[in-house]
Give the backbone structure.
Amino acid sequence: TGLAAVLGLLLALLVFLVLRRVPQQARRMLDTMYDEKERAQVTLSSIGEGVITTNDEEVIEFLNPVAELITGWSQAEARGRHLSEVMQLLDEKTRQPTATSMGLALRENRINSTEAQVLLRTRDGIERAVEDKAAPIHDRHGRVVGGVVVLQDVSAARRMAQRLSWAATHDALTGLFNRSEFERLVDAALESAHNQGAQHVLMYMDLDQFKLVNDSCGHAAGDTLLRQVSSRLQGKLRQSDTLARLGGDEFGALLEGCPLDRAELIAADLVSALGDYRLIVESKAFSVGISIGLVVINAQSQSAAEVFAAADSACYAAKERGSNQVRVYHGADEHIVQRREEVNWALRLTRTLEEERFTLHYQSYQGLGVGDNAGQHIEILLRMIDEDGQLVMPGSFIPAAERYNVMPDIDRWVIRNVFARYHDLARQLGAPLTCAINLSGTTINSSGLCEFIRSHALMHDLPRRSICFEITETATINNLRGAAQFMHDIKGLGFLFALDDFGIGTSSFGYLRNLPVDLLKIDGSFVRDIATDPLDRAMAETINRVGHIMGLETVGEFAESQTVIDELREMGVNFAQGYAVHKPQRLPAPLTHRDRLPVLTTTVEEPATPGL
């Protein structure tokens, strides 16, 4: 009995202890749950996206602070409302209402996001670009009991994307389409012409006198002019027409579904729109004209490149007639055909450079025993090898190369190759050797030329007087300040300068004292007949005398007979150059890599004109 009493007492004590411990565990479990809930709420409040939770009928139960900010609804106001009332979404393109991603996520029990770009209209009526993604919430048995939507405000990112997209297709100065987008539209017009028989007209426009405004008043005035001109042009086009700035002072217009006679009337309106235009800068009034070329786009039109080339040719032909002219492209037009040929030449020249199909010849000078002209002096002559392996004279391609700004690349090719071969040439042709290299006026005006020459001269350790750059008198007159600066910069390397074709300019002697020239090349038109024409002889004598007074050496071009050479010697000219001295020939092959240049078996008669 006593033992039973003790056991009963122990059991009662154990039950008491167990019962006492249960509430403590329950409290700890509740505390843990509260802690987890608090951490979850803090986490949802801290993340950068908006979070909205709903029940399985899309009735809102919770919004975090970011969701409140995005939607304009507080949690207290939104709780119990349907999600579509708080998240009013619009398709950004169609402006039509669109459903949230939650409905599909709950119905199909999967994560879902809105595919279209959408705008969320806030409670205050503000529209924000958003991205939303929804996911179902399950209970422990896997049943869908609600959902969660994650919202992100992407307004800034979408504005940036829109700005970048706009910049890729528009000209920043005028707000018009740029060249690349305009070319895409022309491609589309060509496709409609080929597939649907549609007809369009491409208009190519070039402003006259724009460079005068830009150079005399600065780029700010030039920018103002371009903006005002583009606005005037836009005002004369139809609603369906597209105006674009193609670069510099060139514009293009695509007249969709437009017959040619209507396009000619529109072109005339554009000319009239600029007829009374004046740009006022510092009490000075500037006017501009316009040259317009038209080409029809129809089922017979070829590629966009062909269409642009035709329109450009017509525009150039219009410009040659004078300011404010319109020209329609016709395939049989002689002037336009010539322009098209020059465009084709420009493309061929670019390919020739890429394929290394230029080659170098040379023509020697003859010293006439006057002054110190010891050593070998040659002029480097450029030739092209065409697609059939035939030699092409520079007179055929130089005009196109200059007009289409390919000449700077060609001249750099010559400089690079002559500098690299100089020491071999000096061993083969005799030392000291001076190589004369012709430079185009467009090359002199190109950026980076001095640095290019300096770097290659240092690379190949060229001696003083090893190179003589020849610049035509005409190119020098056209940019006297730039030419003088270029000469002064390059003279520091120990190189020489010759003024080519001297005497044909209108003010030859007036500017000569301001140029650091070493040689004067008397133009061949005065030299060819000095033995028979007293006036030519007098001109040649005058140029030679003035050159010597200024301490310059002189060269008589077109020395095509011994008689002419003797006359030059009698006048005191330092050098003679021409067929009677040396017929141009290919530069000798390098002492190494002898097979670098192609060998031509075809004999080609060289022209008598030196310097080409």
